[in-house]
Amino acid sequence: MTFVVGENCIKCKFTDCVEVCPVDCFYEGPNFLVIHPDECIDCALCEPECPANAIFADDELPGDQQEFLALNAELAETWPNITIRKDPPPDAEEWQDKPGKRELLER
User: Fold this and answer.
1) How far is the C-alpha of 84 from the C-alpha of 99, rounded, in Å?
2) Pair 21, 99: CB distance under 8 Å
3) 3-49 tens-digit pLDDT
4) DSSP line for 3-44
5) How far apart are CA 60 and CA 99, in angstroms?
6) Under CATH, which architecture does the 3-86 domain have?
7) Domain segments of the chain as ranges
8) In terms of DSSP bridges, do strands 26-28 and 55-57 run parallel, antiparallel, or are they unpaired?
9) What is the pTM assigned to this prediction?
């Protein structure tokens, strides 16, 4: 099992989850974070820390977000590792819980 960052992280990109990860398996893109599935140790520390509720165990990933499992794996191979908490984008709270953000994901 691995944890997966889902759609609600897009344009929110809170990094509270990064701070608690004991193995530094988060990677950062322009407006989204991902978890490297081969590095995640399934500790579940990140899930409750996410203010956007965007982190799921892979077996609890909502049906309409299944593509995020592959997206996390793909993007973690090219994006830089993030190991410290950063300020979220200034408009992060405005984007939180808005549906249909998939097309806004910047690679």
Assistant:
1) 28
2) no
3) 999 999 999 999 999 999 999 999 999 999 999 999 999 999 999 99
4) EEE-GGGTTT---HHHHH-TT--EEE-SS-EEE-TTT-----
5) 18
6) 2-Layer Sandwich (3.30)
7) 3-86
8) unpaired
9) 0.97
